[in-house]
Automatic annotation (TrEMBL):
It comes from Frisingicoccus caecimuris. This is Iron-sulfur cluster carrier protein. Belongs to the Mrp/NBP35 ATP-binding proteins family. CDD domains: Mrp_NBP35. Homodimer. PANTHER family: IRON-SULFUR PROTEIN NUBPL. GO terms for molecular function: 4 iron, 4 sulfur cluster binding; ATP binding; ATP hydrolysis activity; ATP-dependent FeS chaperone activity; metal ion binding. One of its GO terms (biological process) is iron-sulfur cluster assembly.
Amino acid sequence: MSESCNESSCSSCNVEGCSSRKAEDFSVPANAKSHIQHVIGIVSGKGGVGKSLVTSELAVLLQKRGYKVGILDADVTGPSIPKVFGLHGQAFGTDDGIIPFETKTGIKVMSVNLILDDEETPVVWRGPVIAGVVKQFWNEVVWGELDYLLVDMPPGTGDVPLTVFQSLPVDGIVVVTSPQELVGMIVKKAYNMAQMMNIPVLGLIQNMSYIICPDCGKKIYIYGEGHGEETAKELNIPAYASLPMIPEIAALCDAGAIEDYDNMYLGSFIDKLTEK
Ligand SMILES: Nc1ncnc2c1ncn2[C@@H]1O[C@H](COP(=O)(O)OP(=O)(O)OP(=O)(O)O)[C@@H](O)[C@H]1O
């Protein structure tokens, strides 16, 4: 077994094959023209639970409260952020880097769909290439001054979440789930991954929790009430919200007009998220 050391940093350690080697630093510098206060990752245990919709809604609400917001769409093989904001076309570059698109209320967005020739071209790239694109969206995009950069992650705990956690200065994550998931297990997987990377879990959102009867206003829990709230309490996750199925939001997303929706279900969640 190799000799151990008491150094606080690998750079000052001369012990060959040191067994107490500290974790390698994979961090990537931001673009020189980017000044970003907070980076928040939006994650889910599995696909289709509404992670991109929640990312977009959080961005819209933060922007409405006067914060400067950007969305880095790290869901490279299933990008849906540009569509819900009605963004189409190709981003251009300058000497400073790639200029992100801006939505009609001023949210900055970068997504693989905004660099492809044709947004219907599938992304059939291997993991390291995809991870490289995400890093480029961090260090080559001119984000400028931002209070919050929200990173829409692909579902699960694979290559891209790992790259984001290692390469970007992520302040915390928000986990999106749905009631019919095996919440306890899937949320805990995401929670445990964040713990392993020393990243706090800032919030949990249980999406598609219920529908509201259009005649009597009663909440109907089609998948059962779910365990989101008790899981948030059990894991000491500070912010929790339960979102219903909202038919008008689905229609606005399809029309690229998500910014026209005033989401009243996420107000106190945003309060907690932005608490100093
Ligand atoms: N609360 C909701 N009310 C109505 N429609 C919703 C709601 N949440 C999500 N949807 C719709 O469900 C679909 C899937 O949502 P979304 O793309 O956000 O999921 P996702 O978890 O990001 O999926 P993936 O992991 O595959 O990227 C979208 O059409 C979205 O508009």
